Amino acid sequence: MGEVKLIGTHQSFPCARIEWGLKIKGVEYEYLKEDLSNKSDLLIQSNPVHKKVPVLIHRGKPIAESLVILEYIDETWKDNNGHCLLPQDPYERALARFWARFIDEKCVISVWGACVAQEGEEKEKAVEGAIETLSHLEKQIKGKKFFGGEKIGYLDIVAGWLSYWLSVLEELGEIELVNAERFPCLHEWGKNFINTSPIKDCIPPREDVIAYFSFGINYVRSMAANKA
């Protein structure tokens, strides 16, 4: 058990990605819960550049950043459970990496922006931008059960926050981005994903996620109010 350790916090969806990847691969691991308000020496030593979770420690060697960690898991435990996270075809693998970066660099940012935007024209434009960004994922999932085909793969894990964490952001931001009418394929994918084992076994209580995001949202809004 001590060979693989995961430094993380259950409310964080990047940390959930790593749990999902490890569980799909059948890798046993020790979860080291991190207090982000009082970061441990182990976290700072393991990720001195960003000092953020998640961090995977394998045989004493740390790996940071969720997308990097997922690829490491896939390559290190290649034959576990006969389940590859990334496509085997080089072109399809490159596409999966492209869309994973798109999700983190565009979707996450635009959704967060819509959530914290001030009411009025700023909010309307932010919501429109988030919807436009998410529309690209709707096209990618159309006609498929999962982004990875019939089985959950790398891109499903990266996009997995949309199946649970998004609804919390929508509630806190008083917005609606994904529903069955606007994005039927993405909405159906989210239900399939969140109800699949082991995904459903690594979902934190909703009230914990609300508290986790509320802190960040309130901080951003207070900073904006002070500038105004």
Report what the structure shows:
Is involved in the conjugation of reduced glutathione to a wide number of exogenous and endogenous hydrophobic electrophiles. It is found in: Cytoplasm, Cytosol. This protein has 228 residues and is an alpha+beta fold. It starts with a strand and ends with a helix. The protein folds into 2 domains: 79 residues, Glutaredoxin; 137 residues, Glutathione S-transferase Yfyf (Class Pi), Chain A, domain 2. It has a 4-stranded mixed beta sheet with strand order 2-1-3-4, with helices on one face. The protein is built from 9 helices and 4 strands; from the N terminus they run βαβαββααααααα.
Proportion of residues in extended strands: 5-15%
**Structural class, please?**
alpha+beta
Order of helices and strands: EHEHEEHHHHHHH
Tally of DSSP β-strands = 4
First and last CA, distance = 52 Å
Question: Domains counted in the coordinates: how many?
Answer: 2
As a percent range, the share of helical residues equals: 55-70%
Record the strand order, biggest sheet: 2-1-3-4
Mean pLDDT: 95
**Largest sheet, strands/sense/barrel:** 4 strands, mixed
- Overall, the morphology is globular
Low-confidence stretches: none
The assembly state of the depicted protein chains is single chain
At the first level of CATH, the class of the largest domain is Mainly Alpha
CATH architecture heading of the largest domain: Up-down Bundle
- So how many helices? 9
What radius of gyration results from the CA coordinates? 18 Å
Domain GST C-terminal: 89-213
Domain GST N-terminal: 2-81
Function: Is involved in the conjugation of reduced glutathione to a wide number of exogenous and endogenous hydrophobic electrophiles.
Catalytic activity: RX + glutathione = an S-substituted glutathione + a halide anion + H(+)
